[in-house]
Design goal:
By secondary structure, the protein is mainly α. It has helices at about 10-15, 20-35, 40-55, 60-85, 100-120, 130-135, 140-170, 180-210, 225-250, and strands spanning about 90, 95-100. A hairpin with a 2-residue loop joins strand 1 and strand 2 (about 95-100). The model has no long low-confidence stretch (mean pLDDT about 85).
Length: about 250
């Protein structure tokens, strides 16, 4: 199964009720994603970093995931300054660099990193199954919760099946090249993967029906709010409201 690297810990964020963490993470993401102010976006990065520090997450796996997030941002830095129209620009030969494009790339980078840090500290510090049941308690439709749970449970099975299909192709002498045969082989591989996944899903569903499944999954543990949960969630929500208030005051 997929490894959950950050659920082991005894920090405050590991102990908090997952329902409160989901609410804070979603509200924070909404405020940061909709902002046009680099100050608010930068404040979101600081807020996320503080949460990571409070959660005491190991920096090496955090750094690896941060690098993956910023690979996309790197492409934005390469494209937006050259393609975004603006009144202020700098020209070097045939290349025209727009300062507005660079500012937009910087804003998107700040937003992406802030949301990444926040979700890593709040959502990744609880097991996926626990977060799914927290979403259900918050009113998310049961079908979406089931989709999340089964995706987490069986995505590694699909990956194992893909590896078996690739190994079978290699044993038969397949070597990927830039030609029609390679494209056709990969198309067959994807098609077989879909067919096998559908067949397995039917077997899993029939097995669940044999065990009494009737459209509802039950959580073995009950959630309970403590004073620590209320105070911590209130402080985080007030911090996010302060960021949103700065944006609102700037617009007005």
């Amino acid at each position: 199964m997929l490894k959950e690297h950050f659920i082991q810990g005894k920090s405050l964020l590991h102990r908090l009720d997952p329902r409160g963490k989901v609410l804070v993470a979603c509200f924070f993401s909404l405020v940061v994603a909709l902002t046009h102010s680099p100050v608010v976006a930068g404040g979101g990065v600081v807020f996320g970093l503080l949460l990571v520090l409070i959660a005491r997450l190991p920096w090496r796996p955090v750094g690896r995931r941060l690098a993956l997030v910023n690979i996309f941002n790197l492409f934005l830095w390469l494209i937006l300054p050259l393609t975004y129209a603006g009144s202020h620009h700098w020209q070097w030969g045939a290349l025209v660099f727009s300062y507005e494009g660079a500012a937009l790339a910087a804003l998107i980078t700040l937003k992406a990193n802030g949301i990444f840090f926040c979700f890593l500290a709040l959502v990744a510090t609880s097991p996926v199954v626990t977060m799914a049941y927290a979403l259900q308690r918050l009113g998310v439709p049961a079908k979406l919760v089931h989709l999340l749970l089964f995706t987490f449970r069986y995505i590694h099975v699909i990956e194992q099946e893909r590896q078996r299909l690739v190994s079978a192709a290699v044993v038969r002498g397949f070597k990927p090249r830039v030609d029609l045969h390679t494209y056709r082989t990969y198309a067959y591989l994807v098609g077989m993967l879909l067919v096998k996944s559908f067949a397995r899903s039917q077997r899993v569903y029939e097995a669940m029906l044999c065990r009494g499944f009737h459209g509802r999954l039950y959580c073995m543990s009950e959630f309970s709010l403590t004073r620590e949960d209320v105070v911590a969630v209130a402080i985080m929500l007030l911090s996010v409201i302060f960021l949103g208030g700065y944006e609102w005051l700037k617009i007005s």
